[in-house]
Design goal:
Length: about 210
């Protein structure tokens, strides 16, 4: 299955080279991925979970005495992170955008002792643009739990590859290069779109 084509055909990945989409970061982009919508399609959901599990978990030996803990970021990645954790039998927690103002007033949902004990904490994202939300999540976890563990890793389904200077390992399943090649090989998109997409990528690179 060509996953980019499948996402495009189901209007999960959208292209608009005339009126750019605006991200939370303020960056305006000709590409928009709605991976919340992807959760609705069993075959797409299965593809993502299988591929990410094989690439980052099943093909390496996990320390069963201190397995990595997955933390889903708010909000789109919460369900994806939970599915990956379930498939790979790993501890899972998720973060709220802000602490509740009622009940136990939690910011982090789940058994936080796993975060103290794990040799590796995986911040799971659906889409990474600049990496800002991932770094904010790590900062919140460290401050909330007075955690000195710096062994964080960021894994995402998609990465725009705009920031190569994130101070933690940042792995992903699909990146900007795959999108670029799809548009380049797509007969319905003109050559000028390939050029404009490359120019957009270079303009928005974090240097």
């Amino acid at each position: 299955m060509n996953i980019i084509e499948e996402l495009h055909n189901n209007n999960i990945i959208k292209f608009n080279f005339e009126n750019f989409y605006t991200f939370a970061s303020g960056i305006r982009s000709p590409i928009y991925l709605d991976l919340r919508k992807a959760c609705s399609y069993p075959h797409i959901r299965k593809y993502f979970i299988q591929e990410i599990s094989q690439k980052f978990f099943n093909l390496k030996e996990l320390d069963t005495t201190s397995p990595p803990t997955i933390v889903g970021t708010p909000y789109a990645a919460i369900s994806w992170g939970a599915m990956v954790a379930l498939t790979n039998y790993l501890p899972y927690l998720y973060l709220r955008k802000e602490a509740k103002n009622y009940g136990q007033k939690k910011l982090i949902e789940g058994e936080t002792s796993f975060l103290h004990e794990s040799k590796e904490i995986i911040i799971f994202e659906d889409v990474v643009t600049t990496g800002k939300s991932s770094l904010e999540t790590i900062d919140k976890i460290q401050k909330e739990l007075n955690l000195e563990n710096n062994n964080f890793r960021i894994i995402s389904l998609f990465n725009y590859q705009l920031n190569d200077k994130i101070p933690y390992p940042a792995d992903f399943l699909i990146g900007f290069e795959e999108i670029f090649q799809y548009i380049k090989n797509c007969s319905t998109m003109s050559q000028k779109y390939t050029q404009r997409l490359m120019e957009w990528n270079q303009t928005n690179k974090i240097i």
